Records
---
Amino acid sequence: MLKDKNIIKIPSLIDMHVHFREPGFTYKETIKTGIEAALAGGFSGVCTMPNTKPVTDNPKIVKEILQKAKKYKFNIYPVAAITKNLDSLELVDFKELKKAGAIAFSNDGLPLLDKDVFLEALKSEELILSHCEDETVEVNWQIEQFAKAINLGYNPKLHFCHISKKESIDLIRAAKQKGLKITCETAPHYFTFTNEDVDNTGTFKMNPPLGSQKDKKAVMDGLLDNTIDVIATDHAPHSMEEKLKPYVESPNGITGLETALSLSYELLGLDKTIEKMAINPRKILNIINTKTVNFAPDMTWIVNPKEFKTMCKVSPYKGMKLKGKIVK
């Protein structure tokens, strides 16, 4: 890392979990505004989730997303659906989608709950990014299906998205100790907030929901002992009108691209943050980094969502004083 007037060059970051909302929901975010937010946060690439409209379940949509990203000279790694339209039990054509440019497969937004279909997906030997809602229950049986796929002679690849609960982390730790090569991520909101922070609007509403103090500590411990491999953002923007509705009426989702690096750096320090946000994501995705970004480790700043590049100007981090910032 090169130093110059307390600005250092660090590897650019990769976010394994974002929602850029295009196609279909461009009033929430567009590929253009999502990319601008990602660049502001130090990212040179992101994995976009498939719960678009139409669903990213066919080569045409994958190619359209890649074409738009190319225009902005930014690396989008599209994640395609596991099942057609996310709501069926019919598996997509993994080979055709991979050929079109899909980097992995996920039913983010509508978790795949059929154990047999999940096993068939693992047997594709493509990277499966598992979105769990009844988190600990689903983590438990999916680890069992992963082990079953191995016993059947396959080489499955399984990565758990946005892990947030102590019991889930304990299960993943135990599986890793048995030699199962699964990986997982958490997000900054799970080591920053708890359910005690939730207000009566949708500002703190996300899925999985914020956990207890015990869960928050478990997430922090899991990052430190490498049970948790990756910090992703689950950047999921909505309109201000939607997010500021009463909690029960508001949609799940939180923006995170422009705050994740600072929050992680304050918790873990620079080396561990780079490991979780730059090195490990690339290892899991099997991609190579050639880019660096300028980081000011001592710069303090106040989070002002009005200054965000993302279209969503609602943030639970509003007013927080953070340390460390990407600079041009």
---
Amino acid sequence: MAKTSMRIKTQRPPKFKVRQSNRCPLCGRPRAYYRRFRMCRLCLRDNALRGQIPGIRKASW
């Protein structure tokens, strides 16, 4: 879980455009962020397992 202060800080508009950072909106994780889905790999996997992301299905063999 991300620190609450860092989650709030990323929601504010940055002073400069290059200071913008990607963070998962669900859990606040800054690493392993997928731009296409706008979430981290952990939330992506969890939501795919539940079937909440259209067109994505977790592979199992």
